[in-house]
Structures are given as C-alpha cells and as structure tokens.
Amino acid sequence: MAKRKRLTPPDPAQVQPAPETKAGFPSYPLGLAPSAAKRPAPIADVAGAAAATAALQEVTAELTAAQTEGRLIRALPLAAIVSDHLVRDRIAVDSDEMETLIASIKARGQQTPIEVVQLAAGQYGLISGWRRLSALSTLQAREGGFDTVLALIRSPQQASDAYVAMVEENEIRVGLSYFERARIVARAVEEGVYPTTKAALQDLFASASRTKRSKIKSFLTVVEELGPVLTFPTALGERMGLDLSSRLEEPGFAARLREALGKETPDTPEDEASILTRALKANVSRAKQMDRPAPDEVAPGIYVKPVKDGVQITGPNLTEAHIAHIRAILEHS
C-alpha cells in the first residue's frame, strides 16, 4: 500500500506575493480583497439610497399636508397667541371649573390642543380653546414656566368658518347659555361676518334643532335691550329669558326694567333674578289694568262697566231707588 503524504501549511516567509495584474490592482490569495465580503454590490447602494430618499420625501409630504390641513400639533409660545382675535362667545367661566382645569393641566399637562390661525410671522389668533389658554396663562403668572401651548394651526377659508369652529367646540365641551348663544349671533352680525341674524343663526347653530334656534332668536331681544345693564346675564334661565323677550315688546317695559336694574346693584345672580321677577309681575298687573275697559258714565255719578260674568254698576250717586228700579226692570223683562 502506498504511503499517504502528510500536508503541512506553507511557511509565510517562503510565500512570494503574486504579480500585479495589467489593470494595476493587487492580487490577493484566493482572489478576495480584505473587505470584499462586507461591501455590498454597487447596485444595492443605489437602490438603498433611492429607497431612503423616497421615504424621506413621503414623510416630508405627509408632514407638510398635516400642517396645511391643521392636523399637526405644534408647541407655540404662549405670548404669541392673540386671545381676542375673535369676539368670544363665552362671557364668563365658573371659577370652580377653571380651578379644576388649572389643577388638571398642572398635574398632567395640556391634554387637548387649542385651535389658532396664523395672523403674521410668529403671531396666531385664537379660534377655540379660550379656557385652556386662560388656565395656562394663570399657571404662568402663578408659578412661572408654562411658556408654550399645544396648538393646531387652522386655515379657515373665511371668518365665518372660525366662528363656527369656536361655537361648536364650546357647545360640545361646556354648553353655552342662551344669552351667550344670542350674543355671539348679534356680535357676528355687528362684525360683518354675516349679513343677517337669520344667516348667523343658521350657520353658527346649523346642528341645533329648529326649536333651539327659535329660542336663541327670542333671546336676541334680551341681549339688545338688557345686555349692557345685566350683571349676571349667563345666569338668566331659559323660561325667564323667554318671558322677558315677549314682555320687552310691550311699549315702555324695557325702559322701566333698565331703570329698575340701574337703581339696584345685585350682588348675586339670585338678587338679579328677584329684580327681574318683580318687574315681570308688575308688568303683568299693569297689562291687566290696561286690558280692563273704562267704565261708562250712564248718568251723573253712575258708571256701568263690563265684568267677567256681566256688568257692574257703581258710582257715588247710585242710590237704593236706582237699584230698586233696575231690579224691577230685570224682573219684568
């Protein structure tokens, strides 16, 4: 049997380097460059770069669209927000509710963004979120910090779109009083946002029932006649407001009521409601007196006037003889 030849590794010192190729590149053992196994092929580099560029363009386009459509939440400087850009629909906020909101934002941060419209570079007008903005401003004044507000930058096509957004947000979160609803209708017409009250009602409260819009329309009279003299207008109940609206159409009642409110300064909503109630009752009595027909003087000092179930004969010159005579006539009639 032939003997097997034992193979031994070559001595590195005896290995001669391979000659250079015609292209001038060095030749390596086994034909592999040191980094060839790790470096991807050139076509893979191009494909990878193209995919990264496409992904970046897609993300950029989506962010641009989100910002344009008002879907991108941004942290804006609190000082850059113009809170009175629109005539606000809400007149007052319950102090306890505001303190609750302040405590919530302090503990958990701002959970819901406000809505703004860009007015100029670095300046934004508030559309909705007045309570959140007020709470942040209070926290900033009390404790410092809270210098930014989370906001969605909207791009309303016209002023009415901004007013609708404000009203809808407040109706959903904390319903407005009927006085506040009527007031924003009146102010929107005054500002030229809507040409008529009817147009403002139908657009601002498009989702409301016809009955609700009718009540808001009735409160417009209260806003116009009593708005400047009411101390607690948001506390005005629906029933009393509707009653006032109908009474204010009577000649002289608005002036008398304004005079009564001017003489007494109510300290609480209950005090003001008491003044209004007294005025309504006094007006009813006066109306009843006006409805009664004046007595007819049928003879000197003797008057006859119609009453509910017949007629009434009175007067300083009415004697027993007159009464006996009238009785005799009735008995023989």
Using brief descriptors, characterize the structure shown:
11 helices; alpha/beta; five-stranded mixed sheet; Conserved hypothetical protein from pyrococcus furiosus pfu- 392566-001, ParB domain; single chain; 8 strands; ParB/RepB/Spo0J family partition protein; three-stranded antiparallel sheet; RepB_N; ParB/Sulfiredoxin_sf; ParB_N; 333 residues
Assembly type of the shown chains? single chain
Q: What would CATH call the homologous superfamily of one domain? A: Conserved hypothetical protein from pyrococcus furiosus pfu- 392566-001, ParB domain
Residue stretches low in confidence (pLDDT < 50, at least 5 long) are none
- Spatial order of the strands forming the largest sheet: 1-5-3-4-2
Calculate the terminal CA-CA distance, rounded to whole Å.
169 Å
Percent helix range: 40-55%
How many helices does DSSP assign?
11
CATH top level class name of one domain = Alpha Beta
Element pattern in H and E: HEEHEEHEHHHHHHHEEEH
Topology diagram in text:
Blueprint: H1 42-68, E1 73-77, E2 81-82, H2 95-108, E3 114-120, E4 123-128, H3 130-143, E5 148-154, H4 159-173, H5 178-190, H6 197-204, H7 210-226, H8 238-247, H9 253-263, H10 269-291, E6 296-299, E7 302-307, E8 310-314, H11 320-331
